[in-house]
Specification:
heterodimer, B: 9 helices, globular
């Protein structure tokens, strides 16, 4: 018999937040120049924000692991990176769909786009490394180094629109130079907040799963490990009949 | 850092360079392979001299990065687990080991870069004005790639999928170095933007060095 867990208040908050954000996104004023495709903004900006947030959490948790040597930090780092990879992929695909509608191409060799794709590969490598190392301690130490190194890539991605001034618009949130109508900005901020709640809920679930994985690994290691002398059998004396 | 530290680092670097002297891997395998890659590009994109001059510098650094990654990874993956254990038991400081390995790899990569640069100039007819910046760009690229390769080699040491995994780990992380190198050369004669790119490269090299030094001990403990 299987038991189903009740959704937590965080799960409910995540669902309510997303529904609320969707309502605001769909009812916000239409942008004349771009039509309804501009509403992709309400998905695209929050997903890339979540990717940054998730990888920043991976970075911080990796440092915390190296300092404290507590495996829980590594589990948080790995869980957050997984969510980051998913949301980066969604952000790239969403951006491509928007790009087709606006620029008439799915992909353009824009600095932000290209570097975001490369950032995705950094964290795919991070996840591949985690899968390749079965021992939790070794996995934690090695992947934490990569979790810290990943930040090297985040810097050019974030500043790319300023450094190159290419097709991609500059950073959306510039407190001193807001060029967005009030209702659209409000809908965007609500969407970012809603996606952040979703991230926290997903991180919590993935972290719990990682803890269960770790417990299962430890249980298996405690019961299945070979014992010294297992391979040695006692010689049979006098059974040959000779 | 003490004399003892530098003695250990130099001993590790000397050992790695001795290995290269005996095996000749960079000289007889990587350099010819890189040269073939530079030779293949015009066959693929066409032999229009204007196009080749325009893409030449970029192609040079792409080849340096991809083949340099192979060199850096190879240098750090030739040790057997028993050799790594022996080095740890001998009490070699992990930071000195990281420094020594990075130094040796950087020297080899610098040689590789210089030869590839000469091949690119010969094949693509690159304009050499302003290439004085290469005196800074090439060592920075070599040091950065060497640090990345040494770090990634340590991360993936003794991992079954290690040899396949390391290029995936290193290549995306080397992108800031590639950008810095190509943009420094591309922006020569502009509004002084090349200095900003050079600063980016210096920052990346420093960050890699700091991460390498901080994580050398924890990484040695997991090998």
């Amino acid at each position: 018999m299987t038991s189903r867990r009740r959704p937590s208040w965080l799960d409910i908050a995540a669902v309510v937040a997303v529904v609320g954000a969707l309502v605001f996104a769909m009812t916000s004023p239409r942008v004349e120049a771009q039509g309804d495709s501009a509403r992709m903004l309400f998905i695209h900006v929050p997903t890339i924000w979540l990717a940054y947030l998730a990888f920043a959490v991976t970075f911080i948790a990796s440092i915390a692991y190296l300092v404290t040597k507590k495996l829980n930090w590594d589990l948080i780092a790995g869980s957050s990176a997984e969510i980051g990879v998913v949301f980066t992929t969604v952000a790239i695909i969403g951006g491509m769909i928007w790009g087709k509608a606006t620029w008439n191409v799915y992909w353009t060799w824009d600095a932000r786009l290209t570097l975001t794709a490369i950032m995705l590969f950094v964290y795919i490598g991070y996840l591949a490394l985690r899968r390749a190392i079965p021992d939790p301690e070794a996995r934690a130490r090695r992947s934490s180094v990569l979790g810290i190194l990943g930040l090297v890539q985040l810097i050019p991605v974030h500043f790319s629109v300023t450094w190159w001034r290419t097709l991609h618009q500059t950073n959306t949130f510039r407190p001193r130079d807001i060029q967005m109508d009030g209702p659209i900005l409000a809908a965007l901020l609500i969407s970012v907040a809603a996606f952040t709640v979703v991230y926290v809920a997903l991180l919590r679930h993935r972290y719990e799963l990682a803890q269960l994985d770790l417990a299962a690994h430890e249980a298996a290691a405690a019961t299945e490990g070979p014992v010294a002398g297992d391979a040695v059998s006692a010689p049979s004396i006098g059974s040959s009949g000779a | 850092m003490s004399d003892h530290f530098w003695r250990q680092a130099l001993a590790v670097a000397r050992r790695d360079l001795d290995r290269e002297r005996h095996s000749g891997e960079v000289a007889w395998v990587t350099i010819p392979f890189g040269a073939i890659a530079l030779l293949l590009v015009p066959l693929a994109v066409g032999i229009n001299q204007d196009v080749l001059e325009r893409i030449g510098t970029g192609m040079l650094f792409v080849v340096v990065m991809l083949f340099g990654v192979l060199t850096a990874v190879r240098r750090t993956n030739i040790e057997t687990p028993a050799q790594r254990d022996a080095i740890a038991l001998l009490g070699v400081d992990p930071v000195a080991e990281f420094t020594g390995k990075s130094m040796a790899t950087a020297v080899l990569l610098l040689v590789f870069e210089v030869v590839m640069g000469a091949v690119a100039v010969a094949l693509y007819g690159l304009d050499l004005s302003g290439w004085g910046w290469m005196v800074l760009v090439m060592p920075l690229t070599a040091i950065g790639l060497a640090e990345l390769g040494t770090l990634s080699g340590a991360i993936a040491a003794s991992v079954q999928a290690g040899p396949a995994l390391v290029p995936l780990l290193v290549t995306p992380l080397a992108v800031p170095l590639l950008l810095g190198a190509t943009q420094t050369v591309e922006s020569i004669g502009g509004d002084g933007g090349n200095l900003s790119w050079l600063i980016l490269m210096v920052i990346v090299v420093l960050v890699l060095a700091i991460v390498g030094v901080i994580t050398a001990r924890p990484l040695q403990e997991t090998r």
